[in-house]
Design a protein that fits this description.
Layout lengths: L4 H6 L1 E4 L1 H7 L2 H6 L24 E3 L3 H8 L6 H10 L6 H13 E2 L2 E4 L2 E6 L2 E4 L7 E3 L6 E3 L1 H21 L3 E2 L9 E6 L2 E9 L9 E3 L4 E3 L4 H8 L4 E8 L2 H6 L8
Length: 257
Amino acid sequence: MRDDMSKVLVEAPRSGRHYVRALDGTRRARRNRLDHDGESAPPRMGICRDAIERKRFGEHLNPLYRYLSKQIHRPWAKVYSELTANADRRNTVQEHVFQHIRSHVAIETFWRDGQVFAHSYLGPEPQAESGTELYVHPLTGIVLPNRAGAKARQHRKAQRAARNDMAHPDRRIGLPGMPVDRQWHRVKGIWYEVALCLLEVDTAAAPVYDAVLGQFVNRDSRKELVATYGYGDVYAWSKRQLPTRTLRRHGLTSQAE
């Protein structure tokens, strides 16, 4: 392990201040501006609540993860001694390194019912359900890859993809990088990215136009909305045609009917 690993990981300058300075005070000034009578100013002026952007930590964790990945099949006691040889856990910055280690390696493990369990903030859980890449075997103390967890994650991902495809052949949801308020829908053979919005809670509210269904909807249209979007309280307020390059990347094609 490098002698300056702690500096490589967390002692980088914090970024984002130049953008914060460009927006500094604009939102606060707008919120606290006076009316013509001069009596509308709030009694207190907040600081954090008015911030649009804040400085970010410059952490470079890949060197640490690469080092840990090379320690597979080694005793954790020796790995830990190498980690602590050049890191002072009394130092706040260097102690932060060990917090990232625990998120990558399941250290507190035990044997139960023929399988390895790990302690987490939610309580004991099987290693197959753990999100760590590595774990310390409770009987031998050897660092091992979490193959059961990786296989379980792949299985859950395949199940979600199959479930989404089977639920609606003309809809794609939960794709990597897709926001929760976005879905892909095929309308008359053309794939669109659809932006969803919540309906008014009041059933007496005026109907709104749905861009996918091509009609006005409200809370009474729940059955039709569930069949289209999987939810009964949302509607499509806009849609845009997806580019061909994006469709090819996901194995889709558009062909007007």
